[in-house]
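Continuing the batch. This is chain 6 of the set; chains 1 through 5 are on the previous pages. Same settings as before, nothing changed between runs. Recording input and output for traceability.
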Amino acid sequence: IGMFFQDGLTGSAWGDWANYTASPLRAFENELGVQPPVGFWDPLGLAEDGDVEVFTRRRETEIKHGRVSMLATMGYITPEITGKFPGYISPSKGLAFADIPNGLAAVSKIPQAGLLQIVAYAAYCEISGINNRGEAPGD
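Output for chain 6:
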């Protein structure tokens, strides 16, 4: 399908990128992660309007989600390698840390008060960082 869009002279699809100086996508050509030969790659067109504030928010969100994913991976791997805490997660119910399986199966085993604590802590982390923006995304 790329042959339908070639300019006929150079054989490059969509012509020479240097000719499109008025494109709003030029606002992001010098961002971290932009590499030749693709340049700034936005297949869904989310940055077509060239809004830098929206782009920065999306970049911050991408970094945050990546960090949460890394923590979740470590939270899954660590008990498998190092073992689990000794003792009880809920002494009143007789539920030991060793009784909690890894992965999503743990959600059904954790007492409701524990799940509420996890959700409350996640909400606190999310809310406390809303207006705490640094110079660059991820700071």
